[in-house]
Each structure stands twice: as structure tokens, then as C-alpha cells.
Amino acid sequence: MASFASKMKIKVKGTEVELKIASFVSFGMGLTAWTTTYMDARIKHIAYGTRKYPLGYWILIIAPIIFAAMYCGSVWGKSWRRKIVVAETGLIVVSGISLFNFLPEFPHGNMQAGLVFYFIASAITYWIHYAPINSDYVSDTNILDNAKIERAKESINSWRNIVTTLAAGYMVLIIGWCHLILLDLPPTMVSVSSPGEMRLVIMWPLIQLTFFSFFIIFGLLYEGIKKTEKAADVLLSIKKNL
């Protein structure tokens, strides 16, 4: 019984990251769809007017479908590359089909932005999690210990630089996106003489951006930090055996 429980624990632990990514992305896309449906019914868009979509809030069905597609794809794939491809394909197909609900604007700007952002962020998160850390050289007796240590240090620095670059890049992105949401987009969507509608087109995208930032911090960057720690473990194993 204890042995069975131990195996089950290992199995659950092995799918923890896949569960987290699928949950973040599916909720994020659901939030994007809900925001789009709610907001467009309450504003008079300069180009499209007030819009009520065929599925209404039933469009939120895409959230559990995206979750199932991404989770199952990332768990059942035989290789880590296939896991990423299958999971991301599920996201693209489901989200892409949902775009037809938001006609006449095609693709709908808010839905398209959500799909692009979550696709890129989840793909990078998957890659960071699955990308193998080469440690075969640790047991190679033909390589000097000092060379092994230097190689391990290079791996640590590489992953640390990747995390730092991604964090800095997102900071630049979020500054530009906030400028777009607060200043550039509202006048192109609703009349400046409608302050209530202006507040709507600013508030809801900011809420979406806030949730997406949680995914970046607790998903993408967190996995990067964990990968850096795993690279450091290789260095510790070398020093331990000296």
C-alpha cells in the first residue's frame, strides 16, 4: 500500500507543472473571452458599435476545453518537444475557432492579443521546464574535475542570464502595453466624450494584464529559477565527489 501511494505521489509530482500551465492559460483565455463579451456589449465602438455575440457567455466553454487540450497534450506526449507542440496546437485550435464568435472584427484585437501572449509565454515555460540539463560529463573520467566545474558554472550562468533577460524583456513589454492600454487604445475604440466607456476599455485590459503578469512570475520566471537551481545541483554533485 505504501509503495503504491509512493508511486502515485511521484506521478502527480511529475504532472504538477503541466497542471499549472494549463490552469493559468485556460483561466487567462477564459478571462479574456469574458472581458471581451462583457465590455463590447457596454461600449459603442467607433467602428463596430455595440456588439452582442452569438454565444454570449457560453463562449467561456473554451476555458475547460483549452485546459483539457493543453494538459492532456503535455502529459501524453512521448517526447518533450512533442508535448510542447501538441499542447500549443490545442491552444491555437480552440482559441482560433472561438475568434469566429467575435465577428465582425476578425481577428478580435483583445482575443488575438490574449492568444499571442499566452501562446508565447506558455511555450517558453514548457521549454524551460523540459529542456534537459546535460550532466553526462560528470561521470566521464577522461574529463578533468576543474573542467567539469567550469562547465557546470557555464550552465548556471546561462540559465541565470536567460531568466534575467526574460524578466527584463517583460518589464519593457509591460511598460509599452500599459502605455497602449492607458493612452493609445481608448481614443481609437470609444468617444472621448464618454468617460464611462473610456474607463471600461482601460480597466478590463489592465485586469487581464495583471493576471497575465502572475503567470509570468509564478509560471515562466519561477520555472527559470528552478532550472537554474537544477544546474547548480550538478555543480554541487561534482564538488561532493572531489
Notes on the structure:
- With 242 residues, this protein is an all-alpha fold.
- The chain contains eight helices and no strands.
- The N terminus is likely disordered.
List the helices and strands and how they pair.
Layout: H1 2-14, H2 16-40, H3 62-76, H4 80-98, H5 109-130, H6 145-184, H7 186-189, H8 195-240
Helix pairs in contact: 2-3, 2-5, 2-8, 3-4, 4-5, 5-8, 6-8
For the structure shown, list the relevant keywords.
mainly alpha; 242 residues; disordered N terminus
Strand content: under 5%
- Tell me the number of strands: 0
Sequence of secondary-structure elements = HHHHHHHH
Query: In terms of structural class, how would the helical and strand content be classed?
Result: mainly alpha
| Major sheet | none
Shape type: elongated
- Average pLDDT reading: 87
Summarize the structure.
This protein is mostly helical and 242 residues long. It is built from eight helices and no strands.
